[in-house]
Specification:
single chain, mainly alpha, 3 helices, 67% helix
Length: 58
């Protein structure tokens, strides 16, 4: 559930909240929504990095 929350918080531009969720899931990429991409690890890293990068800009 935290994975979906992190993903959708990032999509909603709520980067600080998303980053907190990404920290709690700690790199596990076998859950939704990441497993829908051909490379779940790449998808996870993309959205985590996006949240981290934009959270720092605020």
């Amino acid at each position: 559930m935290r994975h979906l929350l992190a993903y959708f918080l990032t999509r909603q531009k709520r980067y600080d909240a998303a980053l907190a969720q990404f920290r709690l899931v700690d790199g596990h990429v076998g859950a939704l929504p990441w497993k829908y991409w051909s490379d779940p690890a790449e998808a996870f890293c993309h959205w985590r990095d996006r949240a981290a990068h934009r959270a720092r800009r605020r």
